[in-house]
């Protein structure tokens, strides 16, 4: 069976988040890129505001792939920041039905049980809310500073914050290997929190860092591409 990826975006992100990475991965693997309510082809729908509602929606999309014949044993789930929490929940649901997945790759997030309750920002007034996003490096500075784009994105940013802040913060234990990534200076994921991903996964779980802050994991698509290929057991050199 063919290895395939299912990828989940950061706060405010959509289907285009990983386009530079997926462009090459699609040459050697199938990629499932779900559409989140409130963005891309689902602009007419309200964005989900709870973790349960969003993961239920994404689970239905993933189940459609599995029902169409995709092999869960060949699936690599990946998510950055908020997406890491989404991907982890879907890995846990697969494990709960006895199928599991090939690997889970997470970036820019502590494991669910170590999420900070005191870092909640969704209740702040607009200017303070946007400043907090900028301080954490969650969204690109250009998006935060352009008035029209900011007005368009604020409802989505707030909805996604509500999703993260409603996470039940439960311990997760998976049988598949977990590869956890973070920037070396990520204010949201220190070394201890990054290392805490290892006992979440099965044999072969490990961590890796790249230089920089929260979004540095996405800075060079080639680095992320190669790490995802490694987690999937793909040799991109052979395919060139």
TrEMBL record:
Coiled-coil residue windows: none
Domain of life: Bacteria
Domain Thioesterase intervals: 8-226
Family affiliation: Belongs to the thioesterase family.
Entries under PANTHER family matching the protein: S-ACYL FATTY ACID SYNTHASE THIOESTERASE, MEDIUM CHAIN, THIOESTERASE
Protein name: Thioesterase II family protein
Organism of provenance: Micromonospora maritima
């Amino acid at each position: 069976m063919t290895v395939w990826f299912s990828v989940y975006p950061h706060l405010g992100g959509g289907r285009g988040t990983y386009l530079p990475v997926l462009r090459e991965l699609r040459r050697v693997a199938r990629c499932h890129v779900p559409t989140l309510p409130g963005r891309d082809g689902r602009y007419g729908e309200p964005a989900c505001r709870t973790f349960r509602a969003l993961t239920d929606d994404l689970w239905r999309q993933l189940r459609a792939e599995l029902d169409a014949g995709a092999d869960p044993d060949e699936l690599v789930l990946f998510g950055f920041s908020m997406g890491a929490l989404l991907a982890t929940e879907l890995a846990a649901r697969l494990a709960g039905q006895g199928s599991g997945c090939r690997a889970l790759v997470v970036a820019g997030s502590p494991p669910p049980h170590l999420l900070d309750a005191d870092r909640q920002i969704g209740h702040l007034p607009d200017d303070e809310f946007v400043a907090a996003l900028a301080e954490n490096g969650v969204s690109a500075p250009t998006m935060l500073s352009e008035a029209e784009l900011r007005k368009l994105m604020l409802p989505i940013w707030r909805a996604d914050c509500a999703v993260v802040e409603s996470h039940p913060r439960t311990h997760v234990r998976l049988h598949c290997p977990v590869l956890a990534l973070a920037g070396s200076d990520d204010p949201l994921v220190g070394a201890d929190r990054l290392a805490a991903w290892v006992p979440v996964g099965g044999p072969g779980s490990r961590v890796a860092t790249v230089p920089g802050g929260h979004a540095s994991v996405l800075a060079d698509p080639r680095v992320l591409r190669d790490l995802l290929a490694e987690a999937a057991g793909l040799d991109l050199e052979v395919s060139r």
